[in-house]
Amino acid sequence: GDSVTQMEGPVTLSEEAFLTINCTYTATGYPSLFWYVQYPGEGLQLLLKATKADDKGSNKGFEATYRKETTSFHLEKGSVQVSDSAVYFCALSDRNTGGFKTIFGAGTRLFVKA
Amino acid sequence: SQTIHQWPATLVQPVGSPLSLECTVEGTSNPNLYWYRQAAGRGLQLLFYSVGIGQISSEVPQNLSASRPQDRQFILSSKKLLLSDSGFYLCASSPAGSRYEQYFGPGTRLTVT
């Protein structure tokens, strides 16, 4: 079945450092890919998405490129801020199942130190 | 844009007591609706999803149940809570035509004592 694997955390960075959170997936169909962010005590928020190969999703300085050849969707940000401290979830939704279910990765916690 | 409401925000219940969590959605029609549970420091576990009124699919066997009495209302229930039911419960909506992204409510933190 479909699955998402993302790097284990926590990831601890200093402010203004470069961020990469790795995400790879397996899917039988043609999935849409997503990154969600969860701040402490809150629900998840959609951060960015990509719906087909080579699409780049971007938002708030974060970006990720849908790489079909490596089945990857790594999250990057050039300069992190303390306010980026949160848990980040990679996810896929497979069109072949009608998109009714989303498969989430286990989440990666990011701490950014001032 | 749509808004998802959940209540209560926090709940402490004794083992064996009943449960009712409510979720309502504004700003969209005929959404797919979802209940997830998130244990402390863990990922998301899909519990139920619904593609329409009265249509509920269960993902895991357990003592919880879900109902969708109206298009934009989704209820999670239990007749008798277990300690293992403690967690953070999230309701989500996938609006029609959204290319499958989901929008989440603020969550309910349930502690079973």
Describe the structure concisely for a colleague.
With 114 residues, chain A is an all-beta fold. Helix content of chain A is 0%, strand content 52%. Chain A starts with a strand and ends with a strand.
Describe the model.
The complex is a heterodimer of chains A (about 110) and B (about 110). In chain A, about 0% of the residues lie in helices and about 50% in strands. Chain A has no helices and twelve strands. Chain A has strands spanning about 5, 10-15, 20, 25, 30-40, 45-50, 55-60, 60-65, 75, 85-95, 100-105, 110-114. In chain A, strand 7 (about 55-60) and strand 8 (about 60-65) form a beta hairpin. The radius of gyration of chain A is 14 Å and the shape is globular. The model of chain A has no long low-confidence stretch (mean pLDDT about 95). By secondary structure, chain B is an all-beta fold. Helices cover about 0% and strands about 60% of the residues of chain B. In chain B, strands 2, 4, 5, 6, 9, 10 and 11 form a seven-stranded mixed sheet that branches. The radius of gyration of chain B is 13 Å and the shape is globular. Chains A and B meet through strand 5 and strand 6 of A and strand 5, strand 9 and strand 10 of B.
